[in-house]
Structure formats: C-alpha cells, structure tokens
C-alpha cells in the first residue's frame, strides 16, 4: 500500500533521513521506532510532502506521490495525525471535524460519520461547541485522531500519539489504536513507547541516526526487551 | 452635542473605510504571512479604472463596479506573478517584493496617465446631506458606514457559515495543519488575494466619494499606511482586531482634527503615529492580540 524507497531528507548539511526503505501492506499495523532525533518524524513529513526529499521515492496505492502537494496526498487517502496533535485551537471541536470532512464528496455520509465519531469519543461529543484550544492533551489527541478519521483514510500515519500524555490517557490512546486496527484500518505509527508499540503491532522498523537498523516482528527483533537493549538502550555504545 | 454626533458619524465613516481596508490587508497576512504594501496600489488601480470609465462617459455605477473588479483582478494577478514565485522565501524577500510591485504600478500610471492628480467626477448624492432628528449628515458618510457594514457582515457570514470560510479560518490559524486536512493551498492563497482585492476596490470607491474624486499615482500610500496602523492597533493576525483597529483609528483621527487647537491640527497624523509607537512598545500583541494568543 505504501512503499518508501531509498528516501533521503536533509536539513541543510544535516542528513536527517538516510536511505530509508519501508513498506506497509493493506490491513497491517506497522510501527516505526527509535530514539529522539532518529528521523522518524522527518520520514513521515517527507511522505506527506511537508518536507522535500533530496532523493528517493514514495509510492501510495501503486502510484508515485513524491513531490505531490500535501493536500493532494491527503485527498488520495493517506492521512497524517501529526506530532503535537496540531488542533486548530480557534475552531470548535465540531469545526475541526467538519473541516477535515470537507474534502469528501459524500456529504450525507460525512455528517453521519461525524455523529458516529462524536458518540465513539464521548469527551468530544460533550464539547462539540467548545473552542478546541480548551481541550486537555488526551482530549486533543482524541480530536486529532477523530479528525483524521473524518477523511476516511485508507492509510493512517500516527506520529507520536501518546507524547506528553498521562499514563492512563496513554492506555486509552493505545486502546483506540487497537480498535482501529481491529476494524481493518491500515496504520503506520511512530511511537516513543517502543515496548508497548511493538507488542501491539504486526511488524516494526527501528531507526537510528537517520537509518533503519532493524526490522521485523516483535520476535524477530529479539522480543520487546531485546529490542530495547539491542537498539534503543542507552548503554549500547 | 449635535456637532459631536456629526463628528462621531464622520469618524465612524472614516473608521469603517479603514476597517474595510485593514481587513483586506489582514486576510492576506493571516493566510500568506505577508503585509502586502502593494495593497495601496490595488486601491489606486480601482480608482484609475473608475477614472478610465468616467473618461469613456460610462455611468457612475458602472465605474464603481469596474473599479472593484479591476482591483480584485489586479490582486489575483499580483499573487500569481509577483508573490507565488517567492512564497517559500523568507518574509523580508516577500516584503521587498511588495514594495517593488507598488513602485512599478505607480511608475506605470505616472508614465501612461500623468504624475499630476486627475479627477473622477462624483455623482451628486455624494455632496448631498441628510437630516436625521435635527442633525445634518453628509450622505456619503452614511453610505460609507452602510456599505462597510454590509461588506463586513458578508465577510462574517462567509467565514462562519460556509465550508470555504471554515477552510479560510483554519488556514489563517495554521496553514500547514490546514493542508494536512486537505485544504488546497494555492486556492486558499488566491482566494485571500481575491477578497483582499475586492475590499481594496470597495475602499477605492468610498475614498473617491470622500475626496471628491481625486486620483494620482501615489494615492494608495496613505490608505495602506492607515490600514497597517489599524491592524497593528488591533493585533496583527486577528481579523476582528483589524476591524476594531480601523474604527478606533478613524474616530481618533477625526476627533483629534476636530478638537485639537487650531495651531496643531496639522499634527494629527503625527500624534496618531506616535500613539501607534506607544501601542507597539506597551502592547506588542495589539489591543485584541492578547485574546487571539490565548485562543491559539
């Protein structure tokens, strides 16, 4: 479904992403792990056309999308829930959802989806008319995910959905992601919480200093604990 | 008391023109991140289009509509030709580009028409007066307030009630996030310039009604400066702030001119700009800017 091939991204002289290749098949739940600054978010930003890759290609549903406008990529069904949630704070909760749904031609189904999502996320259903800027971190993350779902994504990219959230709220977000996976949504998730992420996912890639250093299932990566000591631990070098 | 009310209406009329112009400047700023100093030249283009139509003997209403359309078209072309190529450059590059565009348009009008002021004859209603409850008001002032109120109301309805307006508000808050929700960047920027041009065109018609129809190549400078001051007062980046800033500025200007002692009325603009410096120093976020910041 998504195929990234030898992707390079640079910020001036800093090479943030070096020769990254990865694939996500339909129905899969894949995680992209690695320490801070490994290039995970830069990879997603390049996929979405927010950053211009210096070389390499990205293909979605068999068509190359490298260099396309972000909005065109979103409209083709590849949707990013960005790091830091990026809620439009001056709009209401409902307006955030409506804006995301505005790209769909099926207006009736879109409004039905909106009502369904408000039921599914009761914290949002209770606050539809409030400015989104008044939501707590966990509520804002739910809005960010609900907003992405309004676009009816074929592939959802989740960038650090639990960053900065309280442990109980983290549980809640992992539950939501598990539900979406169970419903058949294809997901590529970047996550700091590596142990939990790899246990929940079908497969994972580990990035370090801009490169992919390992990939496979939790077992392939030496178990969750093995993953941490081998690739993410601080004592390795 | 009657004189005070007359001055107040005059202030509101001038202020509402400033509010309209400030809104046009603020819309492009919030979407595109540029204070477009060539905005004044959109007013000039609207005015010169009216001048051309009047030379052809066309009726005033046709002149006015042509002026508004010309300003809107010029605004779209300005974005396509001058600003789109430097969209990803830094703010200074865009700002200098806007000065370049302004100077180029002034030069073309000076060469093709004349450096000297010309006159667009204004219809008789602009010099008529209305009597309301014993108070005599110039008709153009009342019309200005009404036209501005309708234009602002239309803007509010578009922004609050339509999908397009929703996208516009989203893009104004965070352009990149809006794109991640599928908002088309090029279309949004072009729309911002279109609305900006329409407002500049309406402004041009109202300014000519106020000044008796004088047009000259540099006529856009004073209004763009006033519009800029209005958005600084209101809090740069806030659309409602721009409107409030325009009204405050217009009323302050008229009141200072009316009630300052005769020897210092010439200093009105000086005093206003000094007040703006004080606002910038004391409240860099503007009068309404604080609210805008809390919302983001």
Automatic annotation (TrEMBL), chain A:
Q: Which GO terms describe its molecular function?
A: ATP binding; ATP hydrolysis activity; branched-chain amino acid transmembrane transporter activity
Q: Which Gene3D superfamilies match?
A: P-loop containing nucleotide triphosphate hydrolases
SUPFAM superfamilies for this protein:
P-loop containing nucleoside triphosphate hydrolases
Does the record's keyword annotation contain Plastid?
no
Q: Which GO terms describe its biological process?
A: L-amino acid transport
Keywords from the UniProt entry: Amino-acid transport, ATP-binding, Nucleotide-binding, Transport
Pfam families in the record, alphabetically? ABC_tran
SMART domains referenced in this protein's UniProt entry, alphabetically: AAA
**InterPro entries listed in its UniProt record:** AAA+_ATPase, ABC_transporter-like_ATP-bd, BCAA_Transport_ATP-bd_LivF, P-loop_NTPase
Record-linked CDD domains = ABC_TM1139_LivF_branched
Q: Could you tell me which residue ranges the ABC transporter domain spans?
A: 2-234
Q: Ribonucleoprotein among the record's keywords?
A: no
Record PANTHER family: HIGH-AFFINITY BRANCHED-CHAIN AMINO ACID TRANSPORT ATP-BINDING PROTEIN LIVF
Which protein family is named in the record?
Answer: Belongs to the ABC transporter superfamily.
Return the protein name: Unannotated protein
Organism this protein belongs to: freshwater metagenome
* Lineage of the organism: unclassified sequences, metagenomes, ecological metagenomes
From TrEMBL, chain B:
Q: Which GO terms describe its cellular component?
A: plasma membrane
Keyword set includes Chloroplast: no
Q: What GO biological process terms are annotated to this protein in UniProt?
A: D-alanine transmembrane transport; L-alanine transport; L-isoleucine import across plasma membrane
Bilayer topology: Multi-pass membrane protein
Keywords carried by this UniProt record: Amino-acid transport, Cell inner membrane, Cell membrane, Membrane, Transmembrane, Transmembrane helix, Transport
Transmembrane segments annotated in the record for this chain = 12-40, 60-83, 95-117, 137-159, 188-208, 228-252, 264-282
Pfam families, per database record: BPD_transp_2
- What are the GO MF terms of this UniProt record? L-isoleucine transmembrane transporter activity; L-leucine transmembrane transporter activity; L-phenylalanine transmembrane transporter activity; L-valine transmembrane transporter activity
Q: What is its main location?
A: membrane
List the subcellular locations: Cell membrane
Q: Which PANTHER family match?
A: BRANCHED-CHAIN AMINO ACID TRANSPORT SYSTEM PERMEASE PROTEIN LIVH (PTHR11795), HIGH-AFFINITY BRANCHED-CHAIN AMINO ACID TRANSPORT SYSTEM PERMEASE PROTEIN LIVH (PTHR11795:SF371)
Its family? Belongs to the binding-protein-dependent transport system permease family. LivHM subfamily.
Q: What is this protein called?
A: Unannotated protein
Task: State the organism of origin.
Answer: freshwater metagenome
